[in-house]
Amino acid sequence: MNETPTTHPALLPAGLTDVLPPEAERQARSAEAIMDCFAAHGYQRVTPPLLEFEDSLFAGSGAATAEQTFRLMDPESQRMMGLRADTTPQIGRLATSRLASAPRPLRLAYSGPVLLVRGTQMQPERQLSQAGIELIGNDTAAADAEIILTAIAALEAAGLKDLSVDLTIPRLVPSLLDAVPAHLHPALAHALDRKDAAAVAELGGAQTELLLQLLDASGPAARAVPALMAAGLPEAGRAQAARLAEVVAAVQEVLPGLPLTVDPVEFRGYRYHTGISMTIFATGQQMELGRGGRYLCGDAEPATGITLFPDHIIRLAPPVALRPRLYLPHGTSAAQAQKARAEGYATVPGLARAAAPGDEARRLGCTHLFFDGVITALS
Q1: Which pairing describes strands 106-115 and 44-45: parallel, antiparallel, or unpaired?
Q2: % of the chain exceeding 90 in pLDDT
């Protein structure tokens, strides 16, 4: 008789993991530091549900997340639902429905998990944390710059320093590729991604000279912006380049020392982005700390925003200081316990009398012991 193999109770699906103490608390503290900073900059918190009907989840910008979305049948309504793979489309739904009459510009913040159908070789995790902001109802360089500056402030609040921002114009290259035979688009896009000027020269056709100019314009903003403005872009491209120059100037006015780079041939990332987009890195690290850009909310209203990745942030940020754990021997009064908590300790009460309170405190992972009315640090 064949028996069904027993799955170990600790085994989780690929790309999913448990977060244990004290890491779980550090993650929560880091996320709350980010959200507190967003609130201080005027962004109001919303909490959309993990699950939505797929026809609303995939409306507008949400269509770009369809391939990464888990689907299941709602037993109540018998309609298909999706488990969000990105929070921004949900913010768009709120802005165009429940908050349609709210004053513009609308500033919203969010924090919570998302789930992906599949991870990548570089990022195998399928459950990720997101914390982000959206500025809806304003199409100006000032709004784009505000998103960047607020994100930098939030990352600094989480303990990160030496940040840099890479700026892109994701619709620029696709608009230029319209003049190149469609069968060459994949190879040309690959060549641009690798910054392979020789391959671009071979494949670019009528746009070869312009694409090579854009490749040459990649780099630090101080050099890239003038080079981009001098390139022979069509009218729509010139307008996007001018917006980029405005955003760079607005950011540098507030943070003149923030490293800004420009990559005008980069057009990956969230496929719903329609204008200036940005990715934030820690200097010397390839891990993305945040990504965002301009898009259309509800297919009509201008919006811009950024999503930060707390899971990545905590790997690079200094460890968050947690409350020292204080062991309270059995019989310690409630008033003494409350006083210790007010002084910043996490109290761990003994539930029975221990022969050696110090040993019991160490066994329970405590850093301090309350004994004879005195708090003592344990070696």
Answers
A1: parallel
A2: 74
